[in-house]
Design a protein that fits this description.
Length: 94
């Protein structure tokens, strides 16, 4: 995987496009920090690639929620405690 700056993306678009066409992936950076991932796709691989990206993001969110629950002790709540938390959250919305 190659890291390219936003400026480099602007000045070397043709070369980078060729790399994407070969199936390479690029990480775009701004001020040294990653801001985007570019993946080479074609008409057949576009939808499966997007679906895989969405699944990966969902898994990352669930992992984060699990870690937060463990660190706060919420992973050990009983069903009674969970129901009480849900009721409290619903009451706040009213």
């Amino acid at each position: 995987m190659q890291f390219v700056s936003v400026g480099e993306l602007n000045t070397r678009t043709g070369r980078l496009r060729e790399r994407l066409g070969r199936g390479d992936d690029l990480v775009v950076t701004s001020k040294g920090k990653p801001i985007a991932v570019m993946a080479g796709v074609n008409e057949e691989s576009l939808e499966p690639t997007l679906a895989a990206l969405r699944r990966s993001r969902a898994v990352a969110v669930v992992d984060g929620l699990r870690k937060a629950a463990i660190s706060s002790g919420r992973d050990a709540l009983s069903m009674k405690d969970i129901d009480a938390e849900i009721a409290k959250a619903r009451a706040k919305r009213r």
